[in-house]
Amino acid sequence: MLLAAALLGGCAADGNSGNSGSGGGTADAKTDAAPAAGGSDKLYIPIISKGFQHQFWQAVKQGAEKAAAEYGVEITFEGPETESQVDKQIEMLQAALDKKPSAIALAALDSQASVPLLEKAKAAGIPVIGFDSGVDSDIPVATAATDNKAAAALAADKMSELIGGKGEIALIVHDQTSVTGVNRRDGFKEQIESKYPDIKIVDIQYGGGDQLKSTDLAKAIMQAHPDLKGIFGANEGSVVGVINAVTEMNKIGKVTIVGFDSGKLQLDAVRSGTVAGSITQDPIGIGYQTVKAAVQAVKGEKVEKLIDTGFHWYDKTNMDSEEIKPLLYE
Fold first, then answer.
1. Over the stretch 158-188, which tens digit does the pLDDT of each residue have?
2. Distance of CA 305 to CAs 138, 142, 145, Å?
3. Sheet of strand 128-131: strand arrangement
């Protein structure tokens, strides 16, 4: 059975655990509202993520709920079922604005598509906080995110080290419309091209963060390039697709996999050696800092324009360390 099937099933269960309703999504969207102890006088901050299908977003939600409880505010947390549903996310953003919130937080699937609605938010005096992915606009008063270009450059350095500084490699990236997709692709690609002349990137494909599609893309790349030495998967879904492909084609140990994010299947693959190592973010920290920045903005307090939430390389030698283990979600 495909590893993807297990992950899809597990993530679907997580997404379905949410309550529908106050987030304003349509029937096929995943919505989860944080419990609110107070009444209408509490600050209300809708948080619109890229999706619910990956454990990463559940970890972001956990951090957001922690901050909401600490600061005494009401939040809702929702996202489309898949990270390719840009139009669905725009509908959610519009619905959230219609509720006249105190502030709004967005992890944009498309760095340009959301700008017209963010301009409406600004005109209405609603502070906008970006998280995970920024937008092509100065409207967000703050963005809580990983420095994805620097993180992907580290992944490129590790790939070079692992394959001996030469050979053919490829990338499976979740998209080419979000800031995270673009920055992880470019951070990895530019580092390879500038520092490692004996490494050739033979293909870059976009799987939408979908495990099954990423599996097919990785298999096609390996079939077209039988001497391929490595593949970089730029997010959780991309990496799981690569794991599936390498496993199905009996290439474990022959094709080096470097990943991004975590999740149970990726962690298991790192422990077994199928994946050499990955970059971890701090998703709980991203969620927490997003709500904190929103509260500060509403109160008129100073907010850092870019809140760098950090990143680390992990492999089987350090993944259980005190520094790394708390950052790895399953």
1. 999 999 999 999 999 999 999 999 999 999 9
2. 9, 4, 11
3. 30-33, 74-79, 44-48, 104-106, 128-131, 142-145, 306-308
Those residues of the chain that have pLDDT short of 50 are: 1-39
Handedness of CA 32, 34, 38, 41 (dihedral sign): negative
Closest alpha carbon to 60 in 251, 242, 275, 287 = 287
Q: Is residue 258 within 8 Å of 232, Cβ to Cβ?
A: yes
A 10 A CB-CB count for 55 gives 24
Q: Are strands 142-145 and 167-173 parallel, antiparallel or unpaired?
A: unpaired
SS3 244: helix
Would you give the DSSP letter of residue 260? E
The identity of residue 106, as a single letter, is: L
Please report, in angstroms and rounded to a whole number, the separation of the first and last CA atoms in the chain.
20
- Quote the pLDDT of residue 55: 86
Give the pLDDT score at 52: 81
Can you point out the beta strands (E) in the chain?
30-33, 44-48, 74-79, 104-106, 128-131, 142-145, 167-173, 199-206, 230-233, 256-260, 277-280, 306-308, 312-314
